[in-house]
Amino acid sequence: MLHKNEEYEGLVEGLGTDGEGIIKTEGTTTFVPFCLTGERVRFKVLKVKGNIAYGKLIEVLTPSYARVKPVCPVFGKCGGCDLQHMSYAEQLEFKKESVKTALNKIGGIYAAVNDTVPSDLRYGYRNKLALPAGADDGGNIRTGFYARHSHRIVATDSCAIQSPWSEEVISIANKFAKTNSGRHMRHLVVREIDGKFIFALVADKNVSLDGLAALLEKRFEKFTLLLNINPSDTNVIFGEEWRICRGEGFFEGEAEGIKFKAGANTFIQVNDGVREKLYKRVLAEVGDGVAIDLYSGGGLLTAMLAKKCGAAYGIEIVKEASRCADELKEANGLSGKMHNICGSVEGNIDKVFEMTAGQKRVIVCDPPRKGMERSVVKAIARSGADKVVLISCNPATLARDLGILCGTLTEKDGALVKADCPASDYKIDSVTPFDMFPQTKWCETLVVLSCESKKHKEKSTC
User: Fold this and answer.
1) What CA–CA distance (Å, rounded) separates 39 from 65?
2) What three-state secondary structure class fits 168?
3) Contact 423, 458 (CB under 8 A)
4) Which tens digits make up the pLDDT trace of 87-102?
5) Which active-site residues does the annotation give?
6) Which residues, in sequence order, are bridge partners of residue 41?
7) What whole-number distance in Å separates Cα of residue 461 and Cα of residue 68?
8) What distance in Å separates the CA atoms of residue 382 and residue 387, rounded to the nearest whole number?
9) β-pair type (409-412, 251-255)
10) Alpha-carbon distance 351 to 346, whole Å?
């Protein structure tokens, strides 16, 4: 048995879902971050619970062929990246195996997983920056990024996975933090759209942003600046109250021939290059008929679907995003083809299914990391749609939702359990990870399912 605060040596036998090394020694399985399979390492035990322990890497005694030198000086302290010590080819394989393992263990699904689609940019790919601010030991406000599993800020002047402009933004934010208004800063959120910038400063009270605007004007030509007031002490970045301090609060962009408008809180994939690859693959899976886009965000994909299919319905609960989708519809001449519904998916999905009954339908879902509500998955399962296309950034919740949809998971006393005899109208055609988030454990996964005919239903496997 291992003991807390003691150091041990061991062989890394594999990797966990977070990319941490799995070491089995003295009857205990220890999870140690920043290790690679096949390495012999020395580690310190931080926590022991039964035959499970959690440790800290002290030294790599025998490095793996896949080990590389991290680019970022605060890698291992900042919680933003998990895999900078791993070669990019190995990262792609890790993400493929992570999806496969989640489907097997959580969803009871045994499906082939395609190779991970790589990102053309391995660093500097993010079009969005969320920069937290907090007091250091001396009481001064400092920006940086959260440490792993905490809200402690790790101060840094740059971020390797952010676009190059982020370094100047961090410098400006730290200068503003020294002013009276800056002392109330909680976050600075930035989004780039075709070389134009949306800055949203989150503060705990109403403050003047004139000083921040002046700093930004020295570096950024095309930008809009908003103040968001969020006095609550929660993990949610934005509050309900918004004020536009400079510009119009939105900017227009274009993707795949669709003009769109986005604000600070509009969902857009953070990696433009991989988003383009992903959406092209989605559009290749749809044809004539009607598309139903669940969790549709600012309507970019809904518009693409409307243009390709002839008609599309988008359901989105965020008011700002739904408003952007309505403006996008008008800007692209899609009135009569694109229908946006502002509200929860679970509260509107049955209504949309009724409106489209009898038509050839494809359902496209891109839910948040927590996955879909169980009622939504059940509604999809009984919809009879010809095809279902799922996009997920979380293999665990994807596996759960797919398990319900494919019938490999069933409810028992309110809990999900493996089904003895899986039955479903849907079978999986393909599973493809996309590396939307290089250097992190996360990936975006595209799953395509088709509806089987009644006569083949009993032979269905998922």
Assistant:
1) 9
2) helix
3) yes
4) 999 999 999 999 999 9
5) 393
6) 10, 60
7) 41
8) 12
9) unpaired
10) 10
